[in-house]
Write the C-alpha cells for this entry.
Amino acid sequence: MIMIIIDLMATYKQMGLDELEVWSSLDEISIRNLMRYIAKEYVILKTCNRFEIFAIMENYNNDIEEKLLGLGPKGKILKGSDAVRHLIEVASGMDSMVPGEQDIQRQVKEALKKSIDEGTSGKYLNYIFMKALSTSKEIRSKTRIGNGIVSIPQASVKILEGVLNSGKVAILGTGRVARTLLKYIPKNYDVNVFGRNETRLNEIEKNFGVRGINIRVLRDHLGEYDALFSALRMEGYILNSKDFKSNRPYVIIDLGNPRNIENPGDRYFVDLDYLREYISNNISIRLREMERAKMIIDEKLGVIDKMIMNYQVEEIIASMYKKIEKVKEEEIGELFHYIGEKDREYIEKFADSLIKKIFGGITKNIREGRYDDRTIEELKRILG
C-alpha cells in the first residue's frame, strides 16, 4: 500500500459550537491509542475553532474512515494534496474565522512540536508541517493577507489610543473579549476590570496584573475613568445616559450585541456597528489577497508531492536491499558448510561488489524515475 496523508477535520465552518465541543471534548488518551494503532504518524491540531488530526497511513480503508468519522458529528476527511493544501491554508490564516489571523501559525507550530516530543510525528509529517509553516511565512511576506487590523478588540484599542494616549480605563466583563482587550491595551493605561464572578476577577488580577472590582459599585466610581469598554453578554443596558453625571469617561466603547450602554450623546461613543465598518475594508483586502496566496500554495504542492514520492521510493529501495542482504547472508552461510570460515571476508567482499554492480544502475534508474500513486504501488509490489 502507498503512504497517504489524511486530515480528519471538525471546524467552525462545518458545525455549530455545540457540535464542535463534542470533538474538542474527546478523550485524548483514547484518540492517541486509536491513532497509534491505525497510523504511521499523526499530529493533533486543537484550537477554539477547530479539531483536526493529520495522519500518515499505509493501510487506509473504508473501515478506518468510518471509525474516524464516527468519533463526532459532521466530521470530514481530506486526503492527499487536498489535506496538504488545507494545512497550508490553516497555517496561513486563510481558513480562520478572521482572515489572515496570525496566532494560528503559532498553534500549528506548537502542535508539531508536541507531536515530535511525543514521538508521534516522523519524517513525513515533519516535512509537510515545516513546509506548510515556511509557505505560510512566504504568503504573509508576499501578500497583504496579514495587513491591517481585523480584530474587533484590537480595533477598539486602536481607537482608544487615537483619542487618549494614557489614562484610567474600566473594562466591564470578564469573558473572552475582555481578556483579549487586556492583551492589547498598552501598559501606559491604568486598567480596572468590573465583573460579577469573583473567581474570574481573581484570575484576571493574577494573569494580567490589573485590579478586579465587583460590578455592583460601578456607578459609584464611573466618573473616575477616562475610558470605558463594555464587553458584557447581556440583554438591555447596564448603564443609561442619566448614569453619566460628569464629563468622564471621555471615551465609551460598547462591544455588546445588543448594546449594553445607552449613548449619552456628549462624548466619544463607539459601538459594534462602527467597529465592524472600521475593520471591513481591511477584511476585504485580505479576502482579495486569498487568490495570490492560492497561487503560492499551488507552486508548493508540486514540490511537497515530489518529496513525499521520493521518501517512498527510498523506503522501497531500502526494503529491496534488506532482502538482498538477507539472501546474501543465507547463501554465504550455506557455502561455509563446505569451505570453512577462513575465506569468509573475501567471499563477502566479492558478494557486496557483485550486488553493487548488478543493482547500482537499477537503483540509480529507480531514483531518477517519475512517479505517481499508481507507479509507486507497482514499484512496491515488484521490489518492496
Summary: The mean pLDDT is 90.
